[in-house]
Design a protein that fits this description.
The complex is a heterodimer.
Chain A lengths: L1 H19 L5 H13 L4 E11 L5 E12 L6 E9 L7 E6 L6 E6 L4 E5 L15 H5 L6 E8 L3 E8 L9 E7 L5 E7 L5 E13 L2 E11 L5 E11 L10 H5 L3 H4 L5
Antiparallel strand pairs in A: 1-2, 1-13, 2-3, 3-4, 4-5, 5-6, 7-8, 8-9, 9-10, 10-11, 11-12, 12-13
Chain B lengths: L3 H11 L21 E11 L10 E14 L5 E11 L4 E15 L3 E8 L19 H6 L10 E8 L5 E7 L15 E3 L4 E3 L18 E10 L2 E11 L5 E2 L5 E2 L2 E13 L2 E12 L14 E13 L2 E12 L2 H7 L10 E13 L4 E10 L4 E11 L4 E12 L14 E9 L1
Antiparallel strand pairs in B: 1-2, 1-22, 2-3, 3-4, 4-5, 5-6, 6-7, 7-10, 8-9, 10-11, 11-14, 12-13, 14-15, 15-16, 16-17, 17-18, 18-19, 19-20, 20-21, 21-22
The chains are: A alpha+beta, B mainly beta.
Chain lengths: 266, 422
């Protein structure tokens, strides 16, 4: 509880100071945005559903629960994603041990074969279960993988341009983020390809303050070339619920932790 | 085929899609329909006739999958079964793949009792320490990958602790692989000096039911800094009927094994290695021509994403038959005995396009020592959350008649499967 308060107070102080005097360091803005977008509380849970639409408007759906635990703020993290819909991916479980200083460790459990499949480090900017989201979008891209430049500060946003340190590591040439000056949530991200065209956009559609943390509750990824998109909604969100580290192990792949997956009464 | 179409359309009417996306109706797992599954039709046929088999078809499946789960208290009861008709075996089939009671003991141990599919080890379609039953007939016929693993009746206890996790599986009644019987595919018989398709189909003699004839499988495993270490032990039988009784009937030889594996990231990909020693308990000197010899097995593998959405996997596998001189000296058919060292190279290429809507894959087994090859091209089209279509082929070729893949040359087939998920 103490950590919860201190983090909240710190967030308030930071927010106020941000308003008083805009930040001028791109790295500092990125660090704060990374914290806000991925490190709210010491841990968290959320239920997520996605509507995946192709250019012809045909829809597919996914529903899953995400559990997250921070090993340390702005540092290593653990994620567990347990699918409930549709029936052909039900009970599929995705486990990520995210590392700041080395590649993430990722496993996928396929219940039909009782198979714990490991996913190679390179395989991260590919579709996450058929969505326009990438595997990397689930757990976040390491800030150190890009160089950051503050290109504009408007009344509402810090506008930054990011270029990958290793151009081979990603399909984009660069991306631009609009980071809310008050909440530090990235509200829009435009990805530009080598030809100079914006081909992919991530937008936040709704934000709510939950347990004191500004939280995205609806977002969209659009493929601007094909016309497809994936809408994501988040519900039953809770922070600082005390998820222990041993929830994020091989045990949870075979036996998902019901205690942490079941919805708590609000 | 006439009968298949209306049957396939049936579930669409039965399980009308409920719209879980109205804003206030988040699908609550407890409340929503607990039943799911699929209906699938599959057809496969040979490229050329097998003179020993009276049908050219290799797959005539119509199956209905039903699965559900109940959670009384802290326990979980799971149920998953297929019912359907197998046109090749000319029979109705009920295949219970999961019927288990699972619960925790204290905070650190999980127990699962009942019929279940189990998998461990690091190989990709190559098995060293995974001695749980496999269904090679399904695998060679183009059924979904999940059917490669056959269910068994087991007690599984897994104890988790920071020092080491301990996994124990007891299968009281020996569960062999689903092996080649001559019903769907003919197979090589050293006694006949060629392929045979016995009628009635081969039914190997299984060990009698007693405590000591059961299967005991143990795995100790731990992950440290992204490195997965495991040690394995097994006491049971060879899973294939590669032994003969004194009356020359096919049977299973007693076998114990000990092994280890490591899987870890290396560079942009994943590296795995696994070793296993098979102790043929009744033929340790290797001089009994009726029983298989001891074996040492070794695997090296590497998998990486070569281009976005394009994954490449390579494996080198070695099977070293020990006391090979004794085997050859005592064998009535030395020309058909395995080489002292059998090498196998595998390659998996997977390309996924359009957000996994289309998946092309090619898995190749190639043995430079046996001089045979097995190619598995597969294409999957996921039309929607409900409908998917899979087509592929199983292609076998080789120089000699008697090697593992070569004996299946007349089994080379092409297949198509249509699936409706509900």
């Amino acid at each position: 509880m103490q950590k919860f308060f201190s983090v909240t107070v710190a967030a308030l102080v930071l927010t106020c100071s941000a308003y008083a005097e805009p930040l001028t360091s791109a790295d500092e803005v990125v660090a704060r945005a990374n914290l806000t977008a991925y490190y709210g509380g010491a841990d968290g849970r959320s239920e997520v559903r996605m509507i995946i639409s192709d250019a012809q408007g045909r829809e597919q759906r996914r529903q899953f629960t995400v559990l997250r635990r921070d090993v340390e703020d702005a540092g290593d993290q653990q994620f567990l994603v347990v699918f409930s819909q549709p029936s052909d991916v039900r009970d599929t479980v995705f486990l990520v041990n995210k590392h700041v200083t080395r590649d993430d460790d990722r496993w996928l459990y396929l219940p039909g074969l009782d198979l714990v499949k490991r996913i190679s480090a390179g395989d991260k900017r590919t579709s996450f279960v058929g969505a326009h989201y990438f595997y990397e979008d689930v757990s976040g891209r390491r800030p150190s993988e890009d160089t950051h430049e503050l290109i504009e500060t408007t009344n509402e946003f810090y506008v930054l341009k990011h270029v990958p340190v290793d151009p081979q590591s990603a399909e984009f040439a660069s991306y631009v983020t609009w980071i809310n000056r008050e909440t530090f949530l990235p509200m829009k991200i435009d990805y530009t390809n080598a030809a100079g065209d914006v081909y992919r956009r991530v937008e936040v559609l709704a934000v709510e303050t939950i347990d004191g943390y500004p939280t995205v509750t609806a977002s969209r990824v659009s493929d601007l070339l094909s016309g497809g998109k994936t809408d994501m909604q988040f519900r039953y969100i809770a922070y600082d619920v005390g998820i222990p580290a041993d929830v994020f192990t091989e045990r949870s792949l075979r036996t998902p932790p019901r205690e942490w997956l079941e919805r708590k009464a609000d | 085929m006439k009968v298949l179409i209306p049957l396939l359309l049936l579930p669409a009417a039965l399980f009308a899609q409920d719209d879980a996306w109205d804003d206030d109706s988040w699908d609550d797992e407890e409340a929503s329909s607990n039943w799911s599954g699929f209906v699938e039709a599959g057809l496969g046929t040979r490229f050329s006739a097998d003179p020993l088999i009276n049908t050219n078809n290799t797959l005539e499946d119509l199956r209905w999958r039903l699965e559900s789960r109940w959670q009384p208290g802290k326990a979980t009861i799971a149920f998953k079964a297929d019912a359907g008709y197998d046109g090749i075996e000319n029979d109705w089939v009920i295949d219970v793949r999961d019927l288990t009671l699972a619960f925790a003991i204290g905070s650190g141990a999980d127990v699962k009792i009942g019929r279940q599919v189990q998998t461990w080890g690091t190989g990709d379609l190559v098995f060293l320490n995974d001695l749980f039953p496999k269904d090679f007939v399904s695998f060679f016929s183009g059924r979904d990958d999940e059917y490669l693993k056959a269910p068994g009746n087991s007690l599984r206890i897994t104890r988790y602790s920071p020092a080491v996790n301990i996994d124990f599986a007891w299968t009281p009644v020996f569960e062999p692989d689903i092996y080649l019987t001559g019903e769907r595919y003919s197979f090589f018989s050293p006694l006949a000096g060629g392929n045979v398709a016995p009628n009635p189909p081969l039914s190997a003699i299984e060990p009698g039911e007693s405590f000591s004839n059961g299967e005991f499988a143990l795995r100790l495993f731990r992950t440290v800094s992204g490195r997965e270490y495991a040690v394995y032990a097994y006491r049971g039988y060879f899973k294939q009927p590669n032994a003969l009784t004194p009356a020359l009937e096919a049977t299973f030889a007693p076998m114990s094994s000990l092994g280890a594996s490591l899987r870890q990231p290396v560079g942009p990909g994943l590296f795995n290695t696994e070793v296993s020693y098979y102790d043929s308990r009744d033929d340790r000197d290797g001089d009994d021509p009726l029983l298989p010899n001891d074996q040492f097995r070794f695997l090296l593998g590497y998998e990486w994403e070569a281009k976005p959405n394009f994954t490449v996997g390579l494996q080198y596998y070695l099977e070293w038959t020990l006391d090979h001189d004794a085997l050859i000296a005592n064998s009535p058919f030395p020309q058909y005995e395995p080489d002292e060292i059998r090498h196998l190279i595998t390659n998996r290429l997977t390309y996924r396009a359009n957000r996994d809507k289309y998946t092309w894959s090619l898995f190749t087994f190639f043995s430079p020592s046996d001089r045979d090859v097995y190619l598995r091209p597969v294409f999957t089209y996921r039309h929607s959350d409900s409908w998917s279509l899979t087509t592929g082929a199983n292609l076998f070729d080789g120089r000699d008649e008697h090697t593992f893949f070569s004996q299946l040359q007349d089994a080379s087939n092409i297949y198509l499967r249509l699936k409706y998920n509900y």
